[in-house]
Amino acid sequence: MDSVGVDQVAINALAALEGDFEAGNDMTAEAVRKYPDRVIGHCCINPNYPDKVAAETVRCFEQLGMRMLKFHAAWHQTPPEHENYRPAVEYCAARKIPLLTHLTDYVKGLPGYVALAREYPRMPVIVAHATAPNAIDAIVENCAHVENMYFDTTGYPKWYASVERLVNGCGEDRVLFGSDIAWLNLAHEIGTIIFADISDTAKEKLLGLNFQAIMQESDAQ
Hints:
The chain is of the alpha/beta class. The protein has a single domain (2-217), classed as Metal-dependent hydrolases (TIM Barrel). It is built from ten helices and seven strands. A seven-stranded parallel beta sheet has the order 1-2-3-4-5-6-7. Helix 3 links the parallel strand 2 and strand 3. It is globular and about 45 Å long. The two termini are 24 Å apart.
């Protein structure tokens, strides 16, 4: 982070998404405690344990200092609009806490996320891996008109002009830099923004200003 000028990252432990989500959230919280000015924590919940979702959400935000919600509908094998996610979604929507989430096979989950964003317009819904080659056109077609949906720039792989296509299709105010560190190289992912054929103003927005605006609106402590 220091070597390429990154001030903050938003993270979660992998275990929180695909293993013991309570223990994984504890690991994330430890990183937040260790580096409070550098690390923003994701609260991860798993709808396959519905009796734990509400309590873990409260614990994450009111005890562990998390500032974002995250779930992975594909790994959970649960559609994003499923009722088992709702305790966490409703808690965050009431506080304008952003949700970061992954597409189900990139495009199959889009209708569910659109429905969720429309139902909870106060909650920013950030779609990860939005520059995936089989996702860009579907995102622009389905999501560009949903004002509380945002799109991060990670993708596997990036095709030519993928960042430009996303910015032109959804607007420079709704695209966020995403690294997917440690799977992808942080410097390389920054390079795809720096060398994109978009304005310098747009680059500044993507590389931090858009995300800052979202977090400033949030009531998460």
